[in-house]
Amino acid sequence: MTEKALRLGTRRSKLAMAQSGQVAETVRRVTGRPVELVEITTYGDVSREALAQIGGSGVFVTALRDALIRGEVDFAVHSLKDLPTTQPEDLVLAAVPVREDPRDVIVARDALKFTDLPRGARIGTGSPRRMAQLNAYARAHGLDIETVPIRGNVDTRIRYVHDGELDAVVLAAAGLNRIGRIDEVTDFLSVDTVLPAPGQGALAIECAAGNADLIAALGELDDPFTRAAVTAERSLLAALEAGCSAPVGALADLLADGQIVKEMRLRGVVGTTDGTRMVQLSTTGPVPLTHEQALALGRDLATEMLAQGAAGLMGERAH
After folding, report:
1. Which residue among the candidates 82, 104, 167, 187 is catalytic per the annotation?
2. Which of 174, 286, 288, 294 could be a cystine partner for 100, CB 3.0 to 4.6 Å?
């Protein structure tokens, strides 16, 4: 008798389906069980309002979590940057696989790089974090740009450039990689220019806290370094009391001496969307070996950022 298929809950977007399909393949390999995708429409997928107005990216997660809690699916795959920082007690983050490229990228007309865009170039992004950092960089380097708020899937965003409505759009490298469109990128933005969203490029695989066998099986997909890094980044976000739509960038990376990983560096930034005021700090410490140590790394850096006035730069505090 064949084992019952595991039901993987996923959003319906092309990107979500692609990344869930990749996870399903790995889970099939690890467990030897069939995996079927269960498509779930979330409020974030149907609403045309700006993300910040409808509650940040958590709107993409709620319907998937509800399906998990009701037992309609066995596990779910999220973009980790969409997860609210508080974890529901009845669900567990069973795995955080190896992270994709965390950088932001530009898709611009005429294959232009960010610094080669013409004066007054219109750059589309739905992210206050990207707006804040792009505007700050432009101001510091004498560039003249206008950031334009947009929503929509990858196709819609890139079409704005092809149709001539915008000179460029900013997207996540990981998403374009996962849907096989990375060759459309005209410029990779260094993390020194734009720090990514906390957790960007990483996936979160979530299941019911009571399902010990599945938690153990999915644990095979977990990458401890990626988990430590995103835990530190999300701890920073939580300690700043900022929601997913706040203009906060964070990246934890490993500092190695040859082949030996010595330390973890965590960088954080928060700024006003016009880029006029920014607080950007970093800290370096031993690679966290426990969840608590990773949380502390983020919390400590947030405390320093708040001492330098970060709270006043975030506009609406998350509720």
Report:
1. 82
2. 174
First to last CA, the chain: 50
- List, in order, residues 6 or more apart from 148 with CB less than 8 Å away: 122, 123, 124, 125, 166
Is residue 51 very low, low, confident or very high in pLDDT (cuts 50, 70, 90)?
A: very low
For the cut 80, the answer to whether the pLDDT of residue 224 exceeds it is: yes
Rounded Cα distance between 128 and 85, Å, is 18
The mean pLDDT of 188-213, rounded to a whole number, is 95
Choose the weakest-confidence range: 170-179, 182-191, 252-261, 271-280: 252-261
- Under the banding of pLDDT at 50, 70 and 90, the label for residue 284 is very high
pLDDT category of residue 319 using cuts at 50, 70 and 90: very low
- Whether 314 contacts 306, CB under 8 Å: no
Average pLDDT over residues 68-76: 94
- Alpha carbon dihedral 155, 157, 161, 166, in 10-degree steps, equals 170
